[in-house]
Amino acid sequence: MGKLLIVADLEGKGIATRRGLDIAARHGFDAEVVSFVYAPLKSINVSAEERVKIKQKLIEDKRLEVQGRVDESAKQGQKVKLTVVWEKDLAAWVSRRCTSTRYEMVVKTGRRSDTLAHTSTDWQLLRECPAPVLVIAENKWARTKPVLAALDLRSKVAIKKKLNVEILQRAAALASAMDTSVEIVSAIEVPVLLADLDLVDPATFAADAKRDMQPQIKALAKQFGIPEKRFVVKRGPVEKVIASQAAAKRAQIVVMGTVGRKGVKARLMGNTAERVLRHLRTDVLALKP
Q1: Tens digits of per-residue pLDDT, 39-94?
Q2: What are the distances in angstroms from CA 123 to CA 9, 20, 113, 211?
Q3: How far is the C-alpha of 191 from the C-alpha of 188, rounded, in Å?
Q4: Would you say residue 269 has pLDDT above 60?
Q5: Is 154 helix (H, G, I), strand (E, B) or coil?
Q6: Is 156 in the same domain as 282?
Q7: Could you say which DSSP state residue 255 is in?
Q8: Is position 258 within any domain?
């Protein structure tokens, strides 16, 4: 049986806990809810013994708070483990935990930031966490809407073709558990520089790319029993194509691949999943190759 790691919201209405437990119940997965609490106690002018007591009280208060949310959201008979951690670096702890323990996915409410100097916890998890990360949108969750799988159908690289299969497998499993359908989108991004220099005709480039995608579309459609008409190919920047199709279909979850970049390169360039998150107002499940 699989297991989900659900990161309890530090504040707010406990969206991640509620949705994560619902997803776990629908898949028949066990669930572990982890909550983080931390305070710079060394800055307080009290004895070491008093610091220990304060820490224990903060942990216990957090446990009672999150347990109440778990009790409200858990289904009857659902197996849920609650862990309260004294930790400042949430992303680092989650990544370490997912390295030592296998989880089907990490579920966390999205906290988006567009600043260059600050790398948010969401971005860190997308880049570094070894498990798939489901970033939950804070807007209302529509259970009856389709799951959208975003594929790279142009790539002939074996690892990316394998990732396409994994994305569709995840999307199909989510759609089945939620009693909805799967839709597929793939973008054709015309090289802007070549188009600006009139070295390529955008329409011809897109038509040729779409023709080249057909063998992969046919193979995946046959493998997963999905009608080819559900494979939508559009011209444009990847993040805008995915966002527009998700909005048009009112997709409840977008499943896509991500490449982990770190350091300055990550802050300057990001990756496709991160750019998509800035455009979307729905849940995103990011898988690494």
Answers
A1: 998 888 888 899 999 999 999 999 999 999 999 999 988 989 999 999 999 999 99
A2: 16, 19, 9, 35
A3: 9
A4: no
A5: coil
A6: yes
A7: E
A8: yes
What gap in Å lies between CA 186 and CA 231, rounded to an integer? 8
Distance of CA 94 to the CA centre of its chain: 14
pLDDT at residue 17 greater than cutoff 90: yes
Residue 232 β-bridge partners: 185
CATH number of the domain within which 85 lies: 3.40.50.620
Residues 122 and 155 in one domain: no
Residues 94 and 189 in one domain: no
User: pLDDT class for 266, splitting at 50, 70, 90?
Assistant: very low
Please tell me whether residues 130 and 182 are part of one structural domain. Answer: no
- CA-based radius of gyration for the chain: 21
Residue 96's SS3 state is helix
Q: Residue 95 — pLDDT band, cuts 50, 70, 90?
A: very high
Q: What are 276's two structure tokens?
A: 């998509």
In 3-state terms, what secondary structure has residue 183? strand
Contact present, 170 and 191 (Cβ < 8 Å): no
Measured N-to-C along each axis, helices 90-100 and 121-128 cross at an angle, to the nearest 10 degrees, of 20
Which structural domain, as residue segments, surrounds residue 165?
Answer: 147-287
User: Do both 185 and 131 map to the same domain?
Assistant: no
In angstroms, the Cα distances linking 19 to 92, 130, 192, 251, 257 are 23, 21, 40, 16, 21
Structure tokens at 140: 């209302």
